[in-house]
Amino acid sequence: MNDERENRWLLWLVAIGFFMQTLDATIVNTALPSMAANLGESPLRMQSVVISYMLTVALLMPASGWLADRFGTKRVYLAAIILFTIGSLACAQAHALWQLVIARVIQGIGGAMLLPIGRLAVLRAFPRTQFLAAMSFVTIPGLIGPLIGPTLGGWLVVYASWHWIFLINIPIGILGAIATARFMPAFFGTDQQRFDTAGYLLLAFAMVTISVSLDGLAELGLKTVMVTLLLIAGLAAICVYVLHAGRHEKPLFSLTLFHVRTYTIGVWGNLFARIGAGAVPFLIPLMLQVSLGFSPLQAGLMMLPTAVAGLAAKRWVTPLIQRFGYRRVLVSNTFLTGLMIMSFALFSANEPLWLRIVQLALFGGVNSIQFTAMNTLALKDLETSQASEGNGLLSMIMTLSMSLGVAAAGAMLGAFSDYFGHAEAGTALSAFQVTFACVGVITAISAWIFWQLDPNDRECSEAGHVELE
């Protein structure tokens, strides 16, 4: 009975950690113009605040499982909550953009380990027959975080200050640390295999250099030659990793994962189709405030239809796939997602409010279907021995793609703002419109990846979206 009670507390603890991580990934977007004004920066050059957090989460995810096996779930989860809380405090105390970016990196180090370590603890604490129900419980707060994040961020900016979007994490973090010390089990790995440090450093170098190259021409002001060199270096690191993984006995991510056709298509699809999904939550609140005169709270409320429609659409995924198959659903839905992103180029001061709400809701619905279908596709055919490794790589790719989406959108927005020449006057609507059109085209083109699927594949596993969405 005591074990059952402690397991119940464990579920709440992991759920709160997941909520903190997902909330913080979305709450910042509506506050960026206010942050920029307070820090003396242009609101169109603030993407590093978002990228630094997401990229750090993607970087640390591959190491989280090894750290838990080596030092125990309790120690690592406690360290994650403490780092997340310290990072939040440092964000609130930042007086310059570079200070805020460093603080977001600290926050991201903690955030990167909250969900993977929590999921691992749940997996080891609960029998297989109860794991699906346990993870369903844990996932619910993670879905609520993005739902309330933009609105809560806007409300705090209007009625307090942007600093409070980080300060609200402090009491939650303190309570979480106390609960971790009391209820988190200290699980250790039974097989203490060596960590593939060389492979990890190669992938980390590739992720950082490619992200910096995308953001280099916009916010960082790097010369074209430096951006080109960074991009080439990142791509070269990926090639070297492939050669390294092919001869390493225990690579960070085995190349045998890509022998599974559905996994390969699912991973590549996630990488490119999620670029638009990462760009939209960054661009919409920014455009509404900078170009259309919305308050932070109004901009946050405008994101509610997207989140609500996304939650409602999840129940349609399984019936759609079982009737039409993965290929038809993903090809058509990816193209629709791209069209909906392109439709945001129609936003203007004269557009009716109801039409904006319909656009955002439709995007939320097709985007939710896209996420869930891609994830189940990637994981459904993996062997049991590949599931953990495949899930880890997919989680990293998902987060990295969202970061690349913000970096690419920021780079395009900066370039188009300079081209149209009126960004600083606060009328950069044309730059936003062209950026949305380009991001939508990139998303629509990625439908070609899913065209490679077997038209007759209709099997839809429920396991994938419980863990990933």
Short summary of the structure?
With 469 residues, the protein is mostly helical.
Mean pLDDT: 85
Number of helices: 19
Q: Tell me the major beta sheet.
A: none
CATH top level class name of the largest domain: Mainly Alpha
CATH architectural name of the largest domain: Up-down Bundle
Q: What's the assembly state of these chains? A: single chain
What percent of residues are in strands? under 5%
Helix % is over 70%
Q: Which consecutive residue ranges, at least 5 long each, have pLDDT under 50?
A: 462-468
- The rough form would be described as globular
Number of domains: 3
The fold-level CATH name of the largest domain is: Growth Hormone, Chain: A
Look at the helices and sheets and give the structural class. mainly alpha
CATH superfamily of the largest domain: MFS general substrate transporter like domains
Order of helices and strands: HHHHHHHHHHHHHHHHHHH
Radius of gyration, whole Å: 21 Å
Give a verbal description of the structure.
- It comes from Jeongeupia chitinilytica.
- InterPro entries: EmrB-like, MFS, MFS_dom, MFS_trans_sf.
- Its main location: membrane.
- Keywords: Cell membrane, Membrane, Transmembrane, Transmembrane helix, Transport.
- It contains 19 helices and no strands.
- It is mainly alpha-helical and 469 residues long.
- The chain has three domains: 1-183, Up-down Bundle (Growth Hormone, Chain: A); 196-251; 253-469, MFS general substrate transporter like domains (Growth Hormone, Chain: A, Up-down Bundle), CATH 1.20.1250.
- The longest helix is centred in the C-terminal third of the chain and has 37 residues, at 384-420.
